């Protein structure tokens, strides 16, 4: 290995150490989908808020079992939304979700009753205490912790917060990120005919789409030619837009037009590393600009961009969002796999259920870093460490989701339960 090519683990350490957790802000609950909860949520109410019926039927009371054949006078009717009612000794006709009248403690479904007259009912089954009553606080008790800090808020969490009447929640501020693609061969406008030697910019749309899914706010996107002055001006526009992280694509390798390292030097940036022992993405560069802005110089090949984003930028975003490092799944390979030693490989892969119903991962054909078609077939990244060269079918490998918030994504144990 080249002296100045860092092992992935060392490079990642440098990235994590340079990243700092951002502050939190209040977000209206209805608008907090996919945001990261900054503090735990403790319920200040009971859920359900009152004892209510699980069935359409009759509410009644008794010291123990009330037996089939019992006849009771009907005292009133209680529908969902009705307020406090006080029962005497009889039965109340009740609807699902209605507050159980005070003094009653059980509900018999309508189909287990027989109307004897307009104001009395006969039970056709025994009714036990508490039967078909949804007790106040049985779902969530007042004072109970319902969500952990670090929860990535999903619709089911919004359902819970809405039911609890939580109007706003503290969430981590989203890291502000700018994207700058470099290359005079790039064409952004899909309506423009390509001249010989030109290609369409696919890294820009990929980064602009993936970063918000990773918890970032994209504040600036720009494409520049192979021109150091234009690149420096673009960096300035990114900084003016408030970027705290800048992701660039291209111009970090050995070619005549690979000007990013020199441009950064001129801007007074501190290059923290350049070149990592990985494939793809080896010429990756990481620098800190004045003002503590982090710059990830991703090599231009599209899969090097995808790997740089997934395995360097996303871990930094996790620190900024207050999330712990990810734990990959360990999944058996469906076929043997061999690679060059000394480089850590990040492989476009397909996680699936095999014929025996077990989880398995297949390394896809077409791993070259210019090949984007297999990335669109992939639903996971498999990672094979630097010191490994050949793995038989069935060997366990680390598997990561396509994004850090996506399957197989890390999750927290439920409050009060072990991991
Ligand atoms: N002599 C050497 N040449 C190369 C080396 C090396 O070590 N020695 N490393 C190779 C590796 S690995 C990579 S990755 C690339 C990285 O090069 P750059 O970061 O300088 O990127 P470019 O040369 O600008 O572009 C590489 C490739 O990707 C295409 N590209 C660039 N931007 C986009 C975009 N926005 N959308 C789609 N495609 C893009 C570009 O046209 C090139 O084909 O260097 C190798 N060379
Ligand atoms: O890292 Mo460059 O990764 O292939 O193609």
From TrEMBL:
Domain of life: Bacteria
Reactions this protein catalyses: adenylyl-molybdopterin + molybdate = Mo-molybdopterin + AMP + H(+)
Pathway annotation from the record: Cofactor biosynthesis; molybdopterin biosynthesis
Domain MoaB/Mog stretches: 178-319
Lineage: Bacteria, Pseudomonadati, Pseudomonadota, Gammaproteobacteria, Lysobacterales
Cofactor entry: Mg(2+)
SUPFAM superfamilies named among the record's database cross-references: MoeA C-terminal domain-like, MoeA N-terminal region -like, Molybdenum cofactor biosynthesis proteins
Organism of derivation: Dyella humi
Transmembrane segments: none
PANTHER family per record: GEPHYRIN (PTHR10192:SF5), MOLYBDOPTERIN BIOSYNTHESIS PROTEIN (PTHR10192)
Protein's name in the database: Molybdopterin molybdenumtransferase
Alphabetic keyword roster: Magnesium, Metal-binding, Molybdenum, Molybdenum cofactor biosynthesis, Transferase
EC identifiers of the protein: 2.10.1.1
CDD domains, alphabetized: MoeA
Broad enzyme group: transferase
Family: Belongs to the MoeA family.
Pfam families: MoCF_biosynth, MoeA_C, MoeA_N
Function: Catalyzes the insertion of molybdate into adenylated molybdopterin with the concomitant release of AMP.
């Amino acid at each position: 290995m080249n002296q100045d090519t860092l092992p992935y683990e060392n490079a990642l350490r440098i990235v994590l150490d340079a990243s700092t957790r951002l502050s939190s802000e209040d977000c209206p609950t209805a608008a907090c989908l996919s945001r990261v909860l900054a503090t735990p949520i403790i319920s200040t109410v009971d859920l359900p808020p009152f004892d209510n019926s699980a069935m359409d039927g009759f509410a009644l009371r008794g010291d123990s079992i009330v037996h089939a054949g019992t006849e009771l006078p009907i005292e009133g009717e209680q529908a969902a939304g009705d307020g406090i009612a006080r029962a005497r000794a009889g039965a109340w006709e009740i609807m699902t979700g209605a507050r159980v009248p005070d003094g009653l403690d059980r509900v018999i479904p309508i189909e287990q009753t027989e109307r004897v007259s307009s104001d009395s009912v006969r039970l056709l089954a025994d009714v036990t205490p508490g039967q078909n009553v949804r007790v106040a606080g049985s779902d969530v008790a007042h004072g109970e912790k319902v969500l952990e800090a670090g929860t990535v808020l999903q619709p089911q969490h919004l359902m819970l917060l809405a039911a609890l009447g939580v109007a706003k929640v503290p969430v981590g501020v989203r890291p502000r990120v700018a994207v700058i693609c470099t290359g005079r061969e790039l064409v952004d406008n899909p309506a423009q005919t390509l001249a010989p030697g030109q290609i369409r910019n696919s890294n820009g749309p990929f980064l602009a789409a993936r970063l918000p899914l990773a918890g970032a706010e994209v504040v600036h996107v720009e494409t520049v030619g192979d021109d150091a002055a234009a690149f420096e001006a673009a960096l300035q526009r990114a900084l003016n837009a408030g970027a705290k992280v800048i992701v660039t694509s291209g111009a970090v390798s050995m070619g005549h037009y690979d000007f990013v390292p020199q441009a950064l030097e001129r801007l007074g940036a501190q290059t923290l590393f350049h070149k990592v022992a990985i494939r793809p993405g080896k010429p990756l560069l990481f620098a800190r600009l004045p003002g503590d802005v982090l710059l990830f110089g991703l090599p231009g090949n599209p899969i090097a961009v995808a790997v740089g984003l997934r395995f360097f930028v996303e871990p930094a975003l996790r620190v900024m969002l207050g999330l712990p490092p990810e734990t990959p799944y360990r999944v058996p390979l469906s076929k043997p796999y061999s690679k060059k030693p000394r480089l850590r490989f990040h492989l476009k892969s397909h996680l699936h259920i095999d014929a025996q119903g077990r989880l398995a991962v297949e390394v896809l054909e077409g791993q070259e870093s210019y090949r984007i078609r297999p990335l669109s077939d992939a639903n996971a990244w498999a990672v094979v460490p630097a010191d490994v060269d050949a793995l038989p079918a069935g060997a366990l490998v680390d598997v990561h989701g396509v994004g850090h918030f996506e399957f197989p994504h890390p999750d927290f144990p439920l409050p009060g339960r072990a991991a």
